[in-house]
Amino acid sequence: MSRTTGLTPSLLRVAACTGIAALTLTACGSGSGSGSAGSGSGSVKVGLITKTDTNPFFVKMKEGAEKAAKADGVQLMTAAGKFDGDNSGQVTAIENMVAAGVKGILITPSDSKAIVPAVQKARAKGVLVIALDTPTEPQSAVDALFATNNLTAGELIGEYAKAAMKGKTAKIAALDLAPGVSVGVQRHDGFLKGFGATDKDVVCAQDTGGDQAKGQTAMENCLQKSPGINLVYTINEPAALGAYTALKAKGREKDVLIVSVDGGCTGTQAVKDGKIAATSQQYPLKMAAEGVKAVVAYAKSGKKASGYTDTGVTLITDKAQTGVTSKDTAYGLQNCWG
Amino acid sequence: MTATTTPYAELKAPTTARRLLTAPTTGPLVALLLACVYFSLSTDQFLTGGNFSLIVQQVMVVGTLAIGQTLIILTAGIDLSCGAVMAFGSIMMAKMAAEGTLSPLLAIALGLAVCGGFGLLNGLLVQKIPLPPFIVTLGMLNVAFALTHIYSKEQTVTSLPGPLTALGQTFPLGHTDITYGSLVTIALFLLLAYALSSTGWGRHVYALGNSQETARLNGIRTSRLTIGIYTAAGLLYGVAALLLISRTGVGDPQAGQTDNLDSITAVVLGGTSLFGGRGSVLGTFIGVLIVGVFRNGLQLMGVASIYQTLITGVLVILAVTVDQISRKKAR
């Protein structure tokens, strides 16, 4: 009976695969339409490779690049690793973009060291490579770096915390990023420098991966270990919000000062709501936009961008402290990302 | 009514064309060719020798893992630990050689042996206790992952000595540069394809996958066979480890985190049944290439990577659906 119904298993296979191909056609059509400036072949191509597709920071970065690409009439190609730390995914993206004939690549390296050989291969083929947000190791492996100065970002919240604590003895918890990741290390060190403390004053340091749930767990464990904590440094606002939840559960949210870095919109709103005392805001949109401009300039004049460009950082708080320059959350929300 | 009652399928003798059509790899092959035609038409850069060489080079690591994965899936097992075992093997090779603890060749040999050892351990646990392969390899995934990070101290290993990166070097073929590692992967695919299709061992693997009990009653030493397959898979992960460091030029503790799923994807796209006993490594090679071609082609067209993920997901579901339907029909 089943045989007379017509399709054999193999024919089904072929039919399904043809369907797949058809599906791909439509997916490609809509994808390239929204992903690029829609310019014809022969125009300048710029590549943007982020750590992931999903982190709001990189989503904003992509937005900035898209806007700039449209303004300059160039074609933007984007790619990302599958997870934070996916080096081989980024290597593959670089290779494919070079094959596609990009003039320049903007990359936020997942692994500062491991990406270097692939970057060198691309540069050897005359592609301008600019690191965004995260430097490579060594920094000279790329043509230029457009990034927040993470040490400064940390110092700002350190100085703010020093002023806000008004001479109280600090018992510090540090909710860090992950071992060996330069962004996290620099913010942590900057915070301690700005506060005038050393790692000895940190009573509890935990890695959170910048994740809210892990931030909460870390804070719960820190409070268990050392209930007297009164100052919390966090790598980013998700971690800070996790810490806030943990503190609130213990009824400690009023007497513990939380400071953070990033300046995402959710995070800035949390500053406005008083959950986080202050945050150092950075500007991913600007990093990407200036990166695109640099590639366009290279395509036009052959002149390559070089060195380090600080894309700026601003302290955002509604409880300004004398002697510490800051802007309020109204400004922060206007300029936030995500 | 009378016309449709004729069972036309039964009237025809199986021709060569018909046999080609019924081979489990035909569907994937057609999908691959269609994708290639499409990408050739839509971008100028796709249809070049250099680009094809690049695609093969990009899939050689997952491809080699997927050979081991195919062997295990053919026995109705699954290996979730392959990417993590590879990462551990590669970081051992890289660190030992870079720090001069062992000569580069000995470091490679040790890395291969360690990966083989993980495979052996997986096989013993699956066969001797016995435990479900899913659970054993899930545990081993975490063990290998943790050991990688402990041993490497989260540090990427750079400045690798020559022998470790030799397979990443290229030689010219016409106007195209071919990576030695690509040849290693292709050779392994051909070798295992031959072993599975034309040796007694290969027939035993399929028999084991269809029914372990029947295989045992037919005099196949199923226990030894299973453990051997897991060990061989482990050794293949060791080769993948060497290919990985030769490709990226560094020892990376973060490597391989999604490669277990990528290798399973390739196996499934290649028409091998997750229920064991049906499929081939050549199918897997096609499956690996499908993923590589899509990623490369979509990138050349300027499609954002999230669409690549979307399409791969749809492809996998379709492939498994086809497998299920064809099983029902075969019954």
Structure report:
The complex is a heterodimer of chains A (338) and B (331). Chain A is of the alpha/beta class and 338 residues long. Chain A has eleven helices and twelve strands. In chain A, 46% of the residues lie in helices and 17% in strands. A six-stranded parallel β-sheet of chain A has the order 2-1-3-4-5-11, sandwiched between helices. Chain A has a six-stranded mixed β-sheet with strand order 7-6-8-9-10-12, sandwiched between helices. Chain B is mainly alpha-helical. In chain B, strand 1 and strand 2 (176-179) form a beta hairpin. Chain B has 16 helices and two strands. Chain B has one domain: ABC transporter involved in vitamin B12 uptake, BtuC, CATH 1.10.3470. Chain B has helices spanning 2-5, 8-11, 16-22, 26-42, 49-74, 82-98, 104-128, 133-152, 162-165, 180-198, 200-210, 212-217, 222-248, 259-269, 281-301, 305-330, and strands at residues 170-173, 176-179. The chains are: A alpha/beta (338), B mainly alpha (331). The interface between A and B is large, with 60 and 67 residues.
Give a short overview.
Chain A is of the alpha/beta class and 338 residues long. Chain A is 46% helix and 17% strand.
Euclidean distance between termini CA atoms of chain A: 58 Å
Gap from first CA to last CA of chain B: 26 Å
Strand content of chain A: 15-25%
Give the C-alpha Rg of chain B: 21 Å
The gross shape of chain A turns out to be: elongated
Poorly predicted tracts of residues of chain A: 1-12, 14-41
Number of continuous helical runs of chain B: 16
**Total beta strand runs of chain B:** 2
Largest sheet of chain A: 6 strands, parallel
The mean pLDDT of chain A is 87
Q: How helix-rich are the residues of chain A, as a percent range?
A: 40-55%
For the largest sheet of chain A, list the strands in their spatial order.
2-1-3-4-5-11
The CATH topology of chain B, please? Answer: ABC transporter involved in vitamin B12 uptake, BtuC
SSE ordering of chain A: HEHEHEHEEHEHEHEHEHEHEEH
Q: Spell the H/E element sequence of chain B.
A: HHHHHHHHHEEHHHHHHH
Oligomer: heterodimer
Q: What order do the strands of the largest sheet of chain B run in, or round the barrel if closed? A: 1-2
